[in-house]
Amino acid sequence: MSITDTDTMSWNPKALDEILSNDEGRPVLFTNARILTMDPLIGIMTGADLLFVGSLIVGVGPAIVTAAEDDNAIVVDCTGMTIAPAVVDTVALTGGRGHRSEYVATLTPGNAPDFLVVPDELATDVPNAVATLISRPEQVRALVAAGRPVLWAGADVPGRATAPQAGIPISPDLTGSPRVGVWIDVKDFLHQELTADGRYDETRGGRPHAYQGRYWIDGDRIDYLDDLGFWAYGEFQGDELHHAGYVMKLG
Known about the structure:
By secondary structure, the chain is mainly beta. It is built from four helices and 17 strands. The strands form two sheets. Strands 1, 2, 3, 4, 5, 6, 7, 8 and 9 form a nine-stranded mixed sheet that branches. It has an eight-stranded antiparallel beta barrel with strand order 10-11-12-13-14-15-16-17. The termini are far apart. This is Atu4866 domain-containing protein. InterPro entries: Atu4866-like_sf, Metal-dep_hydrolase_composite, Uncharacterised_Atu4866.
């Protein structure tokens, strides 16, 4: 086992335990890191701190650690480490964003704490940091998604979120769901029937069965898989269903 492997395995175990058991909303502070914010205004910071509460970054920059004790923050020492966005805005990387407000996935106050912690020598820039995650995940000190650790010290975190199982899911029985029924757009052109067996059937301009297929509801999102093979989606907003430019209500 190399020295690097040993360092990885022993990286901040107490801090991980505190973060996983953090049910009191304590702030979490990753301190003394080189931070590649990807924000064109803030840029790259050295000897800097990243502070987040829950799923929101609230501060980035040097000297935040001075208030860590006052705020009862969980402190993660990142000496020798680089923090980089875990969600990469490739358009921004190539200079394709016209305004700072158009950047996504930056480590900026107000954004989600989705980030990587990687040794400095493996993260000269954001692409190298991401490449380390893909090719050498055992060297990643932390992968944090919306403030919750996914990887820590090169290993999966117990109870971590996992990707949805691949393949077409079985449609659940939606009997009694308030979203089952015929949804009609405000211009009375589109009628979309959602049935309890997870099937939909659209009438368009009086033409029956224009599109038919399966659907799945996840929170306020609805995904469609048409029998012709294409996917589409919609969103429930209050008592409305928004889909492909149509605004529908239950008939």
